[in-house]
Design a protein that fits this description.
Two copies of one chain form a homodimer.
Chain A: E1 5-6, H1 16-24, H2 44-61, E2 67-72, H3 75-87, E3 93-98, H4 101-110, E4 115-120, E5 122-125, E6 128-131, E7 146-148, E8 151-152, E9 157-158, E10 171-174, E11 191-195, E12 206-211, H5 228-233, H6 243-258, H7 261-281, E13 299-302, H8 307-319, E14 322-323, E15 334-337, H9 344-361
Parallel strand pairs in A: 1-14, 3-4, 3-7, 7-10, 10-11
Antiparallel strand pairs in A: 2-12, 5-6, 8-9, 11-12, 13-15
Helix pairs in contact in A: 1-6, 2-6, 3-4, 7-9, 8-9
C-alpha cells in the first residue's frame, strides 16, 4: 500500500527503521533463539539491553549523575498520584500550574494527597490562548513542589524555557508529549516524567527522571511500584518491567543518537512546526488559536470554518493515507502530532492535502 | 539456528504462531499502513481489537456477566496495593494466606493499608513441602477479604481446587502463573488478577477480573489507575493502556480457543507435568521437594545433588538450547516453567538432557 502518514497524538508514529529492526529480530533476538519479549528481565541479555537504553537516554538528555532514570508502569496518570506520594514529605501543600487539560487532571489527582494550590496561567487576548510567563506565577512558600506540564497535548499550548525559579524550588514536569523534542537543562528539575507513547516507544512504559536527594520521602501509603526509592534501588526491576517497551525505547534512543541527538531533532521539529503553522496562518480557511509564543512544536491544532467541514476533512484525509488527524474530543477540529518520528515529508503531505481540501471546500 | 526451548518463569515463552503473526503484521496491521503499537487506543481499529480480546478471555474462562475484565498496568506487585485499597471498604482487616514468597509479598504490601491476619499454610513432612487444605484455614470473621496465591511460581507449590468457602466470603486470588492453565469457577472468586507475562502475553499488562458488587469501595487515597471502578467505567482506557501487550494477549487468546480452550490446555499441562515429575522421581540424581498433591503443573522445581552441579546443569543446558532453566535466586536449583506455550516436545527435550546430564555427571 502507499505510505501512510500517521499524526496520532499517542500511541504515535515510531521510526520506520526501528519497526523494521524489531520485525527482523522479533523471533530471534541477539541469537538467543527467542523473542526479546520471551526472555527473563533478570537474564544477562535483557539486563544489558536495559542498561544500554538507560545510558543512551542519559546521554541524549545530558542527565546529570545525581539523577536516577526509572522505567515504570502506569503512565502519566499513574505519576499524577506518585508525585505527591513521593515528594510531599512532611509538607501538606503543593503548587499546581494549570495550563490546560492534563495539568488540571494532575492537580485533581493530587487533591487526594495534599492541599493543591492551583495556579491558572492560561490567558486569552483577541481570541488567542497564551500562557503567563514563569515570572508571573504566584508560588506558595509552603509548597513541597511545583508541578507543571510544558506541552499540553490536546490543544498544543506550550512553554519552551526551562524553569527559572530559585534552585531550592522542587520543579516537577510532565514531559509526556515533549520529552526528547528539544534540549533541556535537567538540573533545573526535581522530577521529570513522561509516558513513552509519544516520543519514546510503545505505550505501557513511563520514564521518570528523579534527583537523588528527593528519594526516600515516600509516604507510607505509597504502593511499592510507585515508590521512587524502591524503583531506583532495584534498577526499575522491583517488579517485572514492560520489557518489550523498554527494548523498543532503546532502539528509538539509538535512532535519535544516530540522527544527531536532541539538538538536531529540535531543529527538525522547529522546521516542521513552522512550515505547518505558516500554512495555517497564510490561509483564510484554517485557524489555530494559540498565541505564537506558546505554539507547541509537537501538537499542532487547527480548525476549518465549521464542524461539518472538520469531519469531512478527517474522512477525506484518511482516504489520502493521512491518519490520526482528528482533534481530541474536548477540543474538536484537527490536530497534527508531529513527534520526532514524523519527517518533513509527512508534514508537506499534510499541507498539500490541506491546500487541496481548502480549494475544493473553501 | 536449532530450536530453542525456553523454560523462563516470566517473561516467558509465547506461542510460535502468535509471534509469527505479530512479526508478519508488525508494520502494517489490518491494512492501516501502521503498526498496531502506533495507533490510537481510541481509534476504531484498536477498540475492536480490545473488545474482541476481552470477549475471548471471557469465553475462555467462562467469566460470568456480573464480572468486569480489566486490562491494567503495574503487575501483580501493583495489585498487592490495589486489592486492599479497593476492597477494604469500612473494614480494617484482611486474611492473607501465606503459601510462599509471592503470597508473603502481597501480605507485606497490604500492611500499609490494613491489619493483616496472616495464615501460614505451608507444612513439611519428611522433607516435603505441602499446603494445608482450605478446610483448615482459620479465617477471620472481620476480614474484608481472603487473599491467596494458588500457584507459587518460585518453588512450584500449588492449590488446584477453587475456593470452597461460604459464598459471602470475598476471595482474592493471584493467578499470575496459573491463569488459563486449567478451568476455574470464576463465580467462587471476588477478584482474580494476573500479570500477563507467564500465560498470557508480554510483560507490562495485568489482567483483573472483578465482581461488579465489589466496585465503588476504593479508599480516597487510591491512585485512579488502580481504582477498579474507574478502570471499569472507562473500559480500561481511563489512561493509555499498553496497547501492544493487549493486542498480543488477544492473539494468544485466539490461539488458545483454536487449540480447544482451557480444558484441552489442562489435559496437555497435566501430561507435561506428569512426564517431568516422573522423570525426577524415577531418578536418584534429581529431586523435587513438593508433596505430590501440591506439585505445580506450571513451575516444576528440581535439584541435582549439589550447587556446583546445578550450576553446571544450567550452563550445559544452555549449550543444548535449553534456556531459562535456572531456579529463582532464593530457591536455587533448577526450575522448568511449562506454561501453555511450552509443548510436550519441549518437555521431552528437557528430560532427554536431564538423563544425559545424569549419565555424565551422576
Amino acid at each position: 500500500m502507499n505510505k501512510v502518514y500517521n499524526f496520532s497524538a499517542g500511541p504515535a508514529i515510531l521510526p520506520h527503521e526501528v519497526l523494521k529492526q524489531a520485525q527482523h529480530e522479533l523471533l530471534n533476538w541477539q541469537d538467543t533463539g527467542a523473542s526479546v519479549m520471551e526472555l527473563s528481565h533478570r537474564g544477562k541479555e535483557f539486563d544489558a539491553c536495559a542498561i544500554e537504553a538507560t545510558q543512551d537516554l542519559r546521554d541524549l538528555l545530558a542527565v546529570p549523575a545525581n539523577y536516577k532514570i526509572l522505567f515504570c508502569q502506569g503512565g502519566a496518570r499513574g505519576q499524577f498520584a506518585a508525585v505527591p506520594m513521593n515528594l510531599l514529605g512532611n509538607k501538606t501543600t503543593a503548587d499546581y500550574i494549570n495550563s490546560g487539560y492534563w495539568s488540571q487532571c494532575a492537580a485533581e489527582e493530587a487533591q487526594k494527597y495534599c492541599t493543591v494550590n492551583e495556579l491558572h496561567i492560561r490567558t486569552e487576548h483577541d481570541g488567542k490562548v497564551g500562557l503567563k510567563p514563569m515570572s508571573e506565577w504566584n508560588l506558595n512558600k509552603e509548597a513541597a513542589f511545583i508541578h507543571y506540564c510544558p506541552n499540553e497535548t490536546i490543544d498544543g499550548v506550550a512553554i519552551f524555557n526551562d524553569p527559572t525559579f530559585a534552585k531550592d524550588k522542587v520543579v516537577v514536569a510532565d514531559l509526556s508529549s515533549s520529552i526528547l523534542s528539544q534540549p533541556i537543562d535537567v538540573s533545573r528539575y526535581g522530577v521529570i516524567y513522561a509516558g513513552a507513547q509519544k516520543n519514546i516507544g510503545p505505550s505501557g512504559l513511563t520514564i521518570v527522571i528523579v534527583r537523588e536527594d528527593l528519594l526516600g520521602k515516600a509516604s507510607r501509603i505509597t504502593p511499592s511500584i510507585f515508590d521512587y526509592q524502591i524503583m531506583a534501588k532495584y534498577d526499575s526491576m522491583f517488579n517485572t518491567p514492560p520489557t518489550f517497551a523498554w527494548y523498543m525505547s532503546g532502539l528509538v534512543f539509538k535512532w535519535l543518537k544516530q540522527l544527531g541527538g536532541v539538538e538536531k531533532m529540535h531543529e527538525l521539529n522547529q522546521a516542521k512546526a513552522q512550515l505547518l503553522y505558516k500554512a495555517i496562518d497564510q490561509s483564510d480557511f484554517y485557524r489555530n488559536n494559540i498565541s505564537v509564543a506558546n505554539r507547541s512544536i509537537m501538537n499542532v491544532s487547527f480548525m476549518s470554518p465549521g464542524e461539518e467541514l472538520d469531519k469531512r476533512f478527517v474522512e477525506l484525509a484518511k482516504q489520502e493515507n493521512i491518519i490520526g488527524i482528528k482533534g481530541h474530543r474536548i477540543a474538536g477540529g484537527m490536530r497534527a502530532s508531529i513527534y520526532n518520528a514524523m519527517d518533513l515529508d509527512g508534514v508537506k503531505a499534510l499541507i498539500a492535502f490541506m491546500q487541496e481540501f481548502e480549494r475544493t471546500h473553501g
